Amino acid sequence: MKKLHISSVKPGDKIAKTIYSETGHVLLGAGLELTDRYINRLEQMGIDTVYIEDKHTTDIIPEDIISDTTRRQAIQTVHKTMTSLLDQPQVKGRMSVPDMGKTFRDVFGSIMGDLSGRKDVLVNLANLHTLDAYLFHHSVNVAVLAGIIGLAKGYNQNQMLDLGVGALLFDIGMSQLPKELWNKRGALTDEERSRIENHTEDGFNILRYQYDVSLLSAHCALQHHERYNGSGYPRQLREQQIHEYAQIVGIADVYDALTSHRSYRQHYTPNEATEYLFAAGNSLFDIELVKLFVKHIAVYPIASVVVLNTGQVGVVSSVDPRSVHRPVVRITKERDGSEVASPYEIDLRNETNLVITRTL
């Protein structure tokens, strides 16, 4: 299969990877043949990339870092919790959700079970979702990414659970906003921006009153928009004033937001997003945490369609974790645009004169 921008998808193409709704249920299943109507509907729902079946790349299968079952259950739990709070205004900052901590420790335990079973943890977030589903998928992705950093830092089980629960629930304060603000198309008013920024304190107030959620997890909600140079909110904390868990969640939050299609902009490629994080090192984020994070990102994920400096077009077929910028590329089009009769592979680790110029 190969991953294409929606503008390059044609009627007759078949979906190779399932697309999920905001509740984690199947929206369009693998094997469905696309029509103009389906393509237009995908665009309307904010889905800007899809995995398509391709005769030259049938054996190229991007594997999400967690299983479909784990992801679906996590999304459904986040969705149920967030939506259950929509019509429950806080009373003096207090709002009780029975067994919230246990529920999300179990969810993160399943995520950790998937992550711990991998020898080389290299992130390829292959899930697809609608724009309306962004908030719920985003929470799960942030938890996955935060978990990877926690493992890399050698956190013990209790530390991992505090970080993981905090990462899954870091945006729970968004439940106190009108739903139309979650993915508003167009510019925000000053009042709307102020209300959105309040979600950090709202989230902290929800979590700190849960009897089985730690204060460290609650601080992930409070501090994930604080920045290393003091430019963040709500308290303009600096450097080590920001808890390390919240710094980790902040990096994961920004990376996944950048690489996701939003109502107000196109997504960044993983390579562009990692460049952004490096540039923000010791400005917005602790550079050592950024370096640790980027070591585990597939900057050219498997099934990505890329263009080489020669003009050749190919699909990334494999990535060596020790050389993420130099993947193996299966050439499907020559420099003159003609389709190759028999695709062949180029290992960029061995071809130093070749570089990837862009991702399609």
UniProtKB/TrEMBL annotation:
Keyword Transmembrane helix assigned: no
SUPFAM superfamilies noted in UniProt: HD-domain/PDEase-like
Enzyme category, top tier: hydrolase
Keyword Hydrolase listed: yes
Keywords of this entry: Hydrolase
Xref: PROSITE patterns: HD, HD_GYP
EC number: 3.1.4.52
SMART domains: HDc
Gene Ontology molecular-function annotations: cyclic-guanylate-specific phosphodiesterase activity
Highest taxon, organism lineage: Bacteria
This protein's name: Cyclic di-GMP phosphodiesterase response regulator RpfG
Organism for this UniProt entry: Aneurinibacillus soli
